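pasting for ref
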Amino acid sequence: MTAAGFVEAVGWTLVNFTWQGALIACETAVHLVLLRNASARARYAVAGTGLLLCLLWPAASLWVRLNGDAAADGGIAIMLVGAGAGSPADLDWAGLLGMNLAWIVGAWALCALFLALRMVAGLLWVRRAAIHEARDPAWQARLDRLAPQFGIGRPVALRVVTNLSSPVTAGWWRPVVLVPASLVTTMPAQLLEALLAHELAHVRRHDYLVNLVQNVIEALLFYHPAVWWLSRRIRAERELIADAIAAGQLGEPRRLALALSELEKLQFSPTRLAQAANGGDLMSRIKQLVRPESTTLNWKAALPVIGFALAALAGCAQQPQAEPKVTSMGPVTIETPVIETTAMVDMNSCPRPVYPAVALQRKIEGTVTIGFLVDARGNVLDTALRRSSGDASLDQAARVALAKCRFKPATINDTPIDRWSDVQYVWKAS
């Protein structure tokens, strides 16, 4: 596949994920509302499945485009907000997006690269802290005594960090708990021990690996609100699970609640690549520890469902079409069907494209697909390269020559309209 074809495949995958992500988020939101009084583990599993689908669906679509059906999902046009009803019949969103796929992919790549570099910087910060920050033998010994209670057999290191506001856990094979120096010197020992128990719950569940996967998905699909919403829900439910595990091991939920209330006075951790005790809504976590109660359904819980449902409906809508005409015959109403035709090129109205000399000499061949915006009179208003032949000189020669041809305009119910139409031209050296 040519570079232009690869860019086109990536571009359409990114565009179509706007409606795919909305559908996934809508379905996940419905399940989360139904499971509002279930365990945090159940909601965590649902939100995690939704976020994983956000990665797998576009990945599968891209694979299909690169290896098989280049038109996968191509029949669905993304409509801007408010562009559905009352749009001109000749407005072709697929054509508009197709002309700007290179810009879309370029902007996405730059932003994804920035987020990836930020993630790498966070990993390096965690690694540096694990190696160079100070050790505290007394708290290390206390952490070593706690770890077996959580079923953790491998060593868990403890480091005291000055520029940190909450304990965080990083690493999987060699986990490390980073503890703020301010907590070591000011927080009562029994409360800090409760926070360390929370961090050990993250180590036991291997939450660090899941969090890394979340960061990768956020970097790749950063432009979709559904990804950030799902990721935020995963982190919130994960903290509730870790709280429940820590409270169960300590046997004192109120002690962990009191420790969390002390954390509320501090700023949040500067890194999201590690698991922190202050993640999620601290007040709701404290309430869940001290006085758990059922959550009643209210209109606010329906907002994510409604919002993502509207986004999914807008994204799944087909290209705008003219509304059918209705004629009345007494008491009977007959709906006239919409009959559309596409623009057709008249190859006899223009000279054939001239084979570029260098390409002919090297016997370069290929098939180029060019989009033409044809007005109601059959004139070409604009062109766009849909799929390259693999050689820029062949693409340009076909574009220039075919743009001089006359077209039979597209029609709706025999009425000529402006419409994009794709034309393929095959270059054969023999």
